[in-house]
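Hey, sorry to bother you again with one of my protein questions. There's a protein on my desk that I can't quite get my head around. No rush at all, and the record is pasted right below.
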Amino acid sequence: MKANIKLSVILLGIVFAFSFSSCERIKFDEDETADINRSRAILQEYETDGGDFVFLKSLLGRTNQEAIDFVTQHGYVEDESQAQSYSKTYIDTETDTIQKELTLYFERDYHQYMQNAALTVKNDNLDTLLVVFKKWLTEIRYSNSYPLFVREHYSLRLDGEGYRYFDTPEQLLDALETIDSSYDDIIVSFEANDNQANKYSLILFEQLYGVFMQITNERINNPLPEVQTVNLTEEYLGKDILIAKVDYMTFEYGGFYSMNVTNKQNEGNEIPFLADYMSPSDFGYIKLYYRDQSKLLMDGSIIWAGCGELNFPETFVKGNSSNTYVPEYTMKRGLSFPSDRISYIDADGSYVQDVDESDNDLGYIWQTLSDCEEFMSYYEQTSKKVAVYLYQPSVGMGDPYDWYYMVFVER
């Protein structure tokens, strides 16, 4: 059920961005990294304070002009032959063995703050590309960004065979030790996003003779809207259903809407959804009702090559922790994840029984909502499963920055 974000790199020219995090300078042990030692000269020319990953990420959040000034102060010179209306490319003039290209994307409306930057190394020697990929992935692994990851994917494909997937960067790095120059078609990739809305992409594409690293954060210029804070009176806590929003990228709480329903069903352990779903070949929608069409719980349009919108509920608020009502659960810390009490639902309104073990999203959603008085006041008064629906108003080449989870709990 969990959406698999396939982060495009420079190859597709899609726009990205994010915020700064520091990390210690990466050092390689001669005894432990034989392959890297074979290209020690390359690494020596490649050393920068904190590494290329931290340098690249530090550009995000600066004004566009500040980003331009920063890269030129660090030895990059603009390649005017590659200039576009939405981007500028700079060449690292301080290395000889490896040439790095740095691209700053400004978007068509030239946002005030840098939200998308990419670094490229082109070389026809596979060993060199592998060294660069390993170095960049190692920098990511030991950066301050790594503990903030909420989704990450590691994969390897050799000579057109099926993809192999890995759970950790260490597993991927170990697999790369078995690669030699006998392979003609190698794709190695890392993709992730963190809870600060940063998206990361690192790929080695042998047939393009390059390694590409890109970081984006569209929230830098388009932050999530503010949610009105209210006192948690009976007006909000005494209804039948609470509907909460949780951002897909960051798991940030987006507020709640509470409502009554007619013909309430007290039996069973699942909310009785009735769904009306139209697949978006161009334009589609999702409508969720309680039992029948007399009580609408959610109505959202879905657009293939654009972005739909949530038509109902229209307004969301959040509690101000005013102690108007403090349920028992909010007084506890370290609540274990209730895997039997929270579940995805499909577009047909049915609860998903089997969830991918690698899917951490439900756990993060629980972490967010279990700190909210309003949610827990409903949760502690029900035996029915909490229902989670991933609303994707944009699909096709949809932007996960537009997605969010709709969470339903019946009191």
Q: What stands out?
A: The CA atoms of residues 18 and 217 lie 4 Å apart. The longest strand covers residues 149-158. Residues 1-48, 322-333 have pLDDT under 50 and may be disordered. The longest helix spans residues 126-141.
